[in-house]
Predict the 3D structure of the following.
Amino acid sequence: MVRGNRRSTVLSGIAGLFYRDGRPAQTETVENMILSMPHRCGKGIQSISDGPVAFAFGFSSNSIEETFGGTLLKDDNLYLVGDIRLDNRTEITAALDPAECFGANVTDGQIVLAAYRRWGTSCVDHFYGDFTFAVWDIRTKTLFCARDHFGVKPLCLYSSDHIFAFASEPKALIALTEVPEDINEERICVHFFPELLLGDKTITMYRSVKRLEPAHRVLVSRESIHKEHYWKLDPYREAEYSSEKEYFDAFKDVFLRSVENRLRGKSKIGCTLSGGLDSSSIACASRDILEKQSRLPLFTYSAVFDSVPSADERHWIDAALHDRQGVVSRKVHPDQRSPLSDLDAMIWLHDGPFYGANYFIHLDIYRAARDDGVKIILDGEDGDTTVSHGIDFLLQLVQSGSWQIFAEECEAVVRAFDNSRTYASKTGMLKAHGIPYLEYLAKTGQWIKYFHALRHIHRLFGYSRKQLLIDHGLKALISYGKKSSVFDTGIMDVGLAAKYRVKDKLQEIDNRYRSSRFPAHLRQSHYDRLTSGALPYTLECLDRMASYYDIEVRHPFCDARLAEFCLSVPPHLKLRNGVSRYILRESLKGILPEEIRTRSGKGDLADVLRQGLKRFESSRILGLTEYLSNNAKHFMNQERLKETLGDFKNGGGQDKDTVITNIWQAAVLDRWMKNGNSKQPGGKGSQYSAVE
């Protein structure tokens, strides 16, 4: 019989420690860890200890009738703390020992404990959903931790010879006296070059604190710590159906199941709705499912921009749910305040400078949802990555020598996309996919294929044969194997970049995501994006911001079974006749309104940041170098920063997006250096400017 604490909440935080040297653990210690995350324990804390181990969880909802969420359990010789939502409860319980008694109200935490008793640390191999949990096994004196496939639920770790500790956020680990608070300078490099996130899934702003990677488990004893992958995508598996309709039906089935799983609960349900394909698919599917379950209304939350027409999508937002009953549509106006508002709160939430200059838009949405009493929001992150735009199908065409079809597909993309916003061009696609492959052929001495490609590029794109041979043949061959000595560190200090080999690391990432694709398995680039470190970082940021307003954010596109299917789809079903994400569009006929299903292009949110800084922060930004803190100066190239400020003032110089990004990076880093990261700002939703 499964026994244990029945309390289970929608939103929670967890913490725990294991004294590997045998010292007794105190519940007061782990409770203090939870208290360092007040947004995760507004309604209370529960804790438990056994010898060298102590667990605690905090909850921010009064809802105790849910069967999933944060939980703290003791069951015979096992203790569990976790933030858990299992999507395949029926499958798991059917596979467990028939002697187990599972009623309709059994919690997901109780199922996890039953699965651990049956399969041990392999239990996680049977789970689908969003979860992070820890199990203390009294019999074996081991601590077992695991995190879900995509890293939707956060988990950070600290380990030494004497102690192993875990928590939902770094700040809870830093609350322990045993954990050093040394700043990780390498993470500051990431602040200036976010591309570095692609290659590192463990880094935090503290040298001693690491993030447990998605789809990983770790087993800790007094003698050892063993960490391993428990799930990996297979980039070589191809789904085989007898017709395209079967592919479309399969996608529809797995997508709708993913959405329905994330609608589970008794709280009010909301969705973000930008008017794009991803959020509209989720909102429309959610509305239809909730209607069948008699659970309407559905709340939708959209950002609109009166002062930034290039980013405003209200036409598509309104079209997404036109004439659909049971929807309460809310709109927020982030362009009416400074993008640097709430900066202290954001820095505190993210434990330092954060990547995501448009996160202030998310805060407005979460505030509005909180005011409506909504506890669960479904979000479209990261549909682009999971489904794939399919643009890499163009790479398949050039690698196979199908230059005529390549040119036709490029022309189709130009026709299909809103070029006033996406700037798609036939020449641009040649430069992105055809020219790099041409240079690859030259570098590797495949001259027969090279001249075949050169002839077709000349005929189909109008390029001079001679110029192609010089610029993308001989020059590529001469430069092959040579290391470029030129590396622009931007506003980051040159010495810092050299110390942490930023140039080499960026080159390694570039080689992985670009050069190594010639030749490569056709799904490799899709696989690389799905498994990069950027996605879990974004999910963690959204989790923190949502939890700040007592909301749990869920991501239907970050579903293991959906990702497995999309990766296995043939490339020609991802891009067809210039239409990207073709399989999603075809599969959701009848669910998505036609105006949304057939749309292309999207709004430019970079304009929101650019105009917001100019409108609300210009005078203070122009004086940034005058009051830059000494600590911030240590990490920045002040001469380049002055040049950037000059470009900002004059509206010229280097790329406008780069100018705005650099200014935002400087302002955020300086604010953190001045104020530190150790205390919560005075009140949720307070307005702060980065430059005072």
Q: What stands out?
A: The first helix runs from residue 27 to 35.
